[in-house]
Write a structure and sequence with these properties.
Order of helices and strands: EHEHEHEHEEHEHEH
Distance between the termini: 11 Å
Number of helices: 7
Strand order of the largest sheet: 1-8-7-6-5-4-3-2
Shape: globular
Number of strands: 8
Structural class: alpha/beta
Bound molecules: D-xylitol-5-phosphate, zinc ion
Length: 214
């Protein structure tokens, strides 16, 4: 299976988003990664339902919504109507098992995300409730940060445990993915690469082609 690409629009020019999304579609990406930040769980505020509602009207790409919000169980219904994958953080203060179940009940595939401070073993018992696991390779909150190599061992540990439990779960990695780091992430077990600043540049097509070649 070739690696899937989920571009994060966080580094885009929001007033030029529709043509950029069309360029991404033409380049053959797999889904669109939408970073929702509330200024509480992370020290930054991005966008929420109204912007996602507009994006949904302009693309048929699957939406991969990454909620970086406090107590996300309060907002599952609100985002589920747009999401193909809906992701919550393990550290965000909700009952994680209940929230993952609620995501699936509402329709999307459930994604569990871990920050750099969380050990993969902490989420092993929750894996049967997940369709995707997202390993953050930067501190969540901002694009353009450097990849943390500690994510590589986490990806491999999760890959092995997913196999051991006989589960069908995609492994996604988010933060600092570029020419220098992407191959290591794939070799460590990543199935889905999120990339923001690497793709929203004047080399969008060239850099997508590079990621697809891995
Ligand atoms: C950070 C976000 C990322 C971010 C990635 O909190 O979750 O999706 O946009 O940006 P790059 O690829 O520039 O690290
Ligand atoms: Zn993200």
């Amino acid at each position: 299976m070739s690696v899937k690409i989920s571009p994060s629009i966080l580094s885009s020019d929001f007033l030029n988003l529709i043509p950029d999304i069309k360029r991404l579609e033409d380049a053959g990406i797999d889904m669109l990664h939408l970073d929702v930040m509330d200024g509480i769980f992370v020290p930054n505020i991005s966008f929420g339902v109204p912007v996602i509602d507009s994006i949904k009207k302009h693309t048929s790409l699957p939406l991969d919504i990454h909620l970086m919000i406090d107590r996300p169980h309060r907002y599952i219904e609100a985002f589920a109507k747009y999401a193909d994958y809906l992701g919550i953080h393990f550290e965000a203060g909700s009952d994680v098992a209940e929230t993952l179940k609620k995501i699936r009940e509402c329709g999307p595939k459930a994604c569990l995300t871990i920050k750099p401070c969380t050990k993969p073993q902490e989420i092993f018992p929750l894996l049967p409730l997940c369709d995707m696991v997202l390993v953050m390779s930067v501190e969540p909150g901002f694009g353009g940060q450097s990849f943390m190599p500690s994510a590589l061992d986490k990806l491999t540990a999760l890959k092995n445990e997913i196999e051991r439990q006989g589960l069908n779960i995609l492994l996604e990695v988010d933060g600092g993915i570029n020419k220098e780091t992407a191959a290591d992430a794939v070799n460590a077990g990543a199935d889905v690469l999120v990339a923001g600043s690497f793709l929203f540049s004047d080399k969008m097509n060239e850099n997508i082609a590079f990621l697809k070649s891995l």
